What we know:
- This protein is of the alpha+beta class.
- The protein has eleven helices and six strands.
Amino acid sequence: MDNENKIREFKIDPDNVNVDLFLPSKFDTLEEKIKLYNLEEEFAKTKKNKDIFSTLLFILFILLISVSSLALIFQSQKGSQKLSVDIADLEDINILEILNTTRSYEDDLARIRVELEDLQKKKERDILDVKEDIKKRIDYINITQKKQTQEKIDTINNLKKEQTKRINNINEAYRPKIEKKEKEIKILEEKLKIFDQEKIKVAQDKEDIILSDDQVKDYQIKEIEKKYQNDVKKETDYYKKRIERLEDYYKNLINDVTLKYNPILTDQNIVNILNKDRDVSITYENKLSSDYIYPNKDIIGNLREMQEELGLVHNQLNDIPFENSVPDLLRRIEQLEKKISNLYEDIILELINQKKSVEKNLSYYTTILNKYANNFLDRGYIIDASNSNDIDFILPKNVKINNGDIKRVIRQHYIVKDGKSYTEVIGTIEFYLSDDNVLKVKIKDIKKNKNFHSFDIIVLTE
């Protein structure tokens, strides 16, 4: 290509060429007048007129240019560390366009993949928040409601249904966003497949023509560092908020449980009861002894044993760190138990005393009745007929009655005006022996619209 139009050498023989065709006929005369330039003579002349300073200045200038060029080349190589690449090859593979396009696609692909990953993480966190919320609510129900009631079961089932519904809503909300990102990723991957992989590899090998290795690494490190700083900040913020939510939840849960089992009572009637005897020490008075109870003397011993056991139970309850109104409740319950026990003992003592008084009076009246009955050997008296099968009666001493004897019952009436009396038959009674061989009386027969009264007469002799 470089030698196509090269002029070829050839020799002319002046003896055989007719120069008259080109030169005038008077050429010979001109040659005699013109003096030819002799190069050797001219160099000989200039050699005598040489200037040494100019020569040194020229050499110094050449050295300065050379040193400056070398310094610039060295500085350029040190700053960019570029490789030597044939310009023709660079133009052949369009490296600039390929690198810019592929890098743009790869950057977009990496960015969208990160966005997709962030969406999936956020969806998982939202679902985790829902599960955590439902779990806390179910745990609260299990803690505050120990009994397995149908209402409790229905509530827990409804919470599980709510969890499923909320998770489905989250999936539906994120599905179009995730599908969009996946579609974008697929499109970019298809675009990257269009390029010749061999040319891309060559372009990547010579990428430092556009950007040096150090610059690429610095840029990539900064981008990665920036991304992970953002990711770490997002994760830190998320878990910080989650921890705060958990702390608030368990704080509220503890307060709720504490108030459930350690309530603050506001009913004024209860408050008034709890305020009584705050600084008063109440003990068991133990007024009863086994001498009062006969024949069941063990009753008093059992009572004292139960009082001691109650004291141990109260001591155990008082050791538990209850809060709010519960300690006052326990104190008041213990006080009321002791007061009630003492009061019952007072009641029993009073009943015993009354019983003794009644027994004394009964003995007195029984003696009188017996004396009165002994004055009439032919009769006895009805004392109480309220129980028709077990009538209380009194008979004269030494009167013999057999099992199965039937006797009439009469009532004696007095006419105050004339001082006269008459008798009325009320009915009949039957004597019988009970299982424990005690003589008893029951109604055998009674007239219509009549009842036995106290001191009706039992006719013993007919």
